[in-house]
Amino acid sequence: MMSEDSTVSCYDEHARMYDVYQSSVVPHYRDMLDMVAKACERYLKPNALIIDLGCGTGNASLAVQEKLSARIFLIDGSKEMMDIAQSKIDKAAQAGYRVADISREGWDEGLGNAEYDAVISTLVLEHLPFDRYRSVIEKCFRLLQPGGWLIATEGYAEEGSDMQEWFYEEMEDQRRGLDPKLSDFVAGLRVEKEVHYYCSKAKKAEWWKEAGFSQVNVLWQYLGIALMVGRRPLLDSSSGKQV
Ligand SMILES: C[S@@+](CC[C@H](N)C(=O)[O-])C[C@H]1O[C@@H](n2cnc3c(N)ncnc32)[C@H](O)[C@@H]1O
Predict the structure, then answer these.
(1) Residue 54 C-alpha to ligand 1 middle, in angstroms?
(2) CATH number assigned to the domain comprising residue 112
């Protein structure tokens, strides 16, 4: 049965091929990572403490580290992906790691309250059923310091638009340029095991706001992939209330 477990097992199985596949097949993958890193550079102070939620092989964390000094806590459901992320990222920059399924309760246990300057998440949250998505967004809100940012790239589907289909067509075109053995294996796994739950940006922005986020905005988009940011409101220093 296709489920959140089968999605994670798909990544376990092709972890070693992930970077080649992703950078040659997913349109504007590198641009997306650069934009996440730019958002971190703009919104965070040096030595920021960041969670990379669904870190995969660590590419978003690496892009962030090219722009600013940061300590990053890595979370992913796939042990194989996590091993690669840990081998790629400077040990001194790793604030810790956890292999956990974020579609289940308890993935955030012991991570503390309101300690992080940002949660970054690239191409992950679209794998969560909507009730779990909302729970994860609420948990991210609680993990962030007042003034902290959620910076997340996801796939979206907009009613009356062919952006999703167009994006997948572009992937298919780029896939033809790859070694067929590698590309057929990864593409087959993804079709067989990877689950997505798509909805509109407006719906997700509404859920982010309900979780407490302000300044919810789309910073970058390419067809069906968009980078959305939101901020946990700052506390008023005299009243201690959110402003
Ligand atoms: C498309 S990859 C993105 C990886 C990385 N963020 C990047 O941009 O390259 C999706 C990642 O999400 C992880 N993932 C998917 N569903 C998950 C879940 N329920 N819990 C934890 N990790 C999950 C997968 O293991 C995989 O590493």
Answers:
(1) 4
(2) 3.40.50.150
